Write a sequence for this structure.
């Protein structure tokens, strides 16, 4: 089986942040069997989808990176929906709406893949990816085999799933949606898009989505706005004008620029409110000494 592989690949333009250096080996599996082969044969690797919720080091990553975006298979039968991990959320949102199925309206504005959305249990506008999930097909790294996990076994909570513990990697997922009038579904999708456009930057302005998770019973955006974070403007990056929980790349930013601004946001909220915000953006790559220092502040030494 010949799996597409690119060596010393410049990842920058595949990330929504438009930041990132060279990847040692980039693998692009097209099928579940190719993906499983890689997961079985490679000893060390990182798996990503649409690179929309990550900050990849400008120093690059010398290891193996697997991108799932070529795994585009999905299936709709009645209210049942099955999708490979690489299917993009907006596409599945649109296709299910055309079939009069409700439950994925919130995904219309998310750039991520199904794998990424289940990994972080993505949610917005009162809907959540786990709401209609039935079960997941995952690769068990310890047993090196494909297994199925029911929704109750996935450890879902706010921005959390069992996938974040590292043992399991999503291959695909099955959902049971609800029938609804197409007009109502489309109207809800349009409201979601309008809401996001009014507050959040589009991907025309490079960004990686929300910077920090919401703390319990509060909003990271509210806390940051109260601290004056919207005025934080550095040479290559800045906090977005209309939502304080977004960082945008002004054009020539490197990963260290983003980390420095994240630390400024983090320490300002911590010093004023004694609340330590948890990053939603995941840092990946070979850290410079400065990046190591900044990541130790942000990720409290929990992220390797």
């Amino acid at each position: 089986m010949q799996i597409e592989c690119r060596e010393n690949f410049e990842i920058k333009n595949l990330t929504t942040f438009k930041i990132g250096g060279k990847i040692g080996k980039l693998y692009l599996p097209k099928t579940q069997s190719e993906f499983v082969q890689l997961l079985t044969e490679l000893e060390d690797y990182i798996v990503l989808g649409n690179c929309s919720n990550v900050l990849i080091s400008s120093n690059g990553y010398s290891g193996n990176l697997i991108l799932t975006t070529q795994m585009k298979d999905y299936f709709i039968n009645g209210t049942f929906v099955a999708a490979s991990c690489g299917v993009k959320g907006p596409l599945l949102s649109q296709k299910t709406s055309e079939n009069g199925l409700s439950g994925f309206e919130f995904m219309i504005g998310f750039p991520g893949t199904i794998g990424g959305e289940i990994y972080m249990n993505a949610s917005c506008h009162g809907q959540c990816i786990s709401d209609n999930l039935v079960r997941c097909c995952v690769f068990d790294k310890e047993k090196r085999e494909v297994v199925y996990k029911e929704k109750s076994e996935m450890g879902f909570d706010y921005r959390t799933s069992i996938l974040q513990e590292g043992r399991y990697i999503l291959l695909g997922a099955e959902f049971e949606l609800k029938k609804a009038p197409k007009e109502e579904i489309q109207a809800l999708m349009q409201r979601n898009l309008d809401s996001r456009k009014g507050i959040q930057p589009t991907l025309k302005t490079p960004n990686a989505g929300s910077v920090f998770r919401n703390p319990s019973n509060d909003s990271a955006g509210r806390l940051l706005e109260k601290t004056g974070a919207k005025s934080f403007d550095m040479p290559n990056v800045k906090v977005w004008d209309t939502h304080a929980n977004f960082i945008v790349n002004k054009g020539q930013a490197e990963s260290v620029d983003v980390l420095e601004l994240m630390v400024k946001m983090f320490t300002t909220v911590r010093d004023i409110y004694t609340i330590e915000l948890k990053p939603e953006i995941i840092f990946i790559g070979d850290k410079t000494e400065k990046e190591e220092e900044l990541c130790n502040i942000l990720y409290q030494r929990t992220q390797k």
